[in-house]
Amino acid sequence: MDNKKRVERARVLGSCILLVFALLSGRLWYLQIVQGQKYAALADGNRIRWVRTLAPRGRIFDRNGVSLATNRASFTVSLLPGSLDGEMGEQVLTRLSELLGLTREEMQDAIRKGISYPYEPIRVMQDVPAETVVVMEEQRYQLPGVIVEMEEVREYPHGSLASHIVGYMAPISPSLLSAWSELGYYSSDYVGMTGLERLYEHILRGEDGGNQVEVSALNRPVQVLDVVPPVPGSDLVLTLDKDLQELAERILIEQLEEVRAAGKFTDTYCGVVIVLDPKTGGILAMASIPGYDPNRLSDAGQRGAYYSELSRDKHRPLFNRAVQGLYSPGSAFKPIVSIAALEEGKTTVGEVFYADDVCPFGLKRCWTLRNSPPLPVHGNVTVRSALAESCNDYFWEMSLRLGVDSLADYARKAGFGSPTGLDMYPSEEAGLVPDPEWKRQRFSRQPRSEQLWYPVETMDMAIGQGFLLVTPLQMAAFYMGLANRGTIYVPYLVERIQRPTGEVVEETVPKVARVLEASPQTWKAVIGGLVDVVKTGTGASAFRGFPYPVEIAGKTGSVQLGPGQGDAHSWFCGFAPADDPEIVVVAFAEHGGGGATTSSPIVRRIMEEYFRKQFEPAGEATQDLEPIE
After folding, report:
1. pTM of the entire structure?
2. CA 493, 494, 500 angle in degrees (round to 5)?
3. Check whether domain 242-615 has CATH 3.40.50.1220, yes or no
């Protein structure tokens, strides 16, 4: 009996052993055969790293091949993710923090921002000094998992020049990373933040490559298994002329300083100069002052403090006044009123109007009577002489003859109230052409009397005051239309996109935005009035003694502000030669006073330099634009 029990127990035990063996064998078969590839890949993942190689970013050049944004070689320090574990990881972080001059908190923050994918090295710092890299190489045995690579970083050779146009680069924001993650962006990437750097980010960026690197158990690189070369980004060649841009910025700054020093307009620190080619719409210069240094905003060590400094500056250096600033145009708006009155038959070229310089309702007086001491009234004027002398009384009369609806219609035909079409980031403002319906909606919560449109508001609009708002770029586009006798092109900055080899990918073709229709007689009278502004009118003092045989047309403008809002804004908009224009120049100075005082001298100096090169040619300019083979 006992023998039978022992045999039965042995049989059960044997069966259990066989079952366990079968289960273990089955599991081993499953792991080795069924899941073998998966775990082999995981094993490889633990010893193989993909080290990304950033694509060289496309460069930005002016029209003559002068570099405005380029790249320079630098050292980047990265960490392999596995090197952060355990006591050794703590020692590596401590030593690396000391070498890079980072606090422990800054190091942890860099790691947090740098983590993208499980096996992607964490980019800790770019543009590491060479002397630091030498020390790191000497102490490499203390820094397992630390990788030092050569990468290119963005550089702006001319500092703040054209900063609002070119823009700057900074680490990608979480919102952008979320939007662009499918495009291959990582949390450690730098991207364009403003200007053309942002607008053409995906063209400038190129396609990243990388190295497949085998690492040891201590996360030290052993060998490179595979190399995928990056594809460089495409270059931008602009319509901008670097020398003209430099001239515009320098003259604007100097003129504002000179006016402040004279003690009359002591709060004029900000302004705009735009120079464009009226035959194409290409922008030759677009200065917005004050600007900023994109190198400092792109530098990790300076960015935070410098951005805070710029943000606190009451003059708003980050603000692109050329396309985002909204201002009343003052008397520089009067040419469109002249065109409207002539084309609608509300006056004729030969009609003489007696201007006593007091508005029909006695509520306003022309600038002649507001002068100290008062000047003689304008007296008998025609449309041409009213433009030359900037006679407010004449344009008040024309506004009442036209009515607000007709006046607003012509303003819109000239391009006011809508963007010009320039590709820029941030995008341009549309401005405002007011009318009775706009006012009713705008003041809908106010008493009925505040919602009504009054004749005096039409009169304000006719002299470029009141609710009317424009950007400096809109004024440049309008004066391009005057220069061309009606044709207004879409302004543009990028002449062409090309590969680093020089192969053209895309070239801009000038595009007509609108045509302001008017008779030859109307154009003759209006252009004649603008020529007289410079010869004998409100702009004559600034252009007296112009050294070259070029006839210039233009218009001054002064924008009166409300009580406590400071001195008037200053405008001058012009083009030359008047009969076959080559350039349009617009100058605007916040709180610069009269157009003849501040803005006219700016335009005169720019035009003088522009035509000096034609009449006194110098040697050929050098360029930086060279194909990369």
Report:
1. 0.88
2. 150
3. no
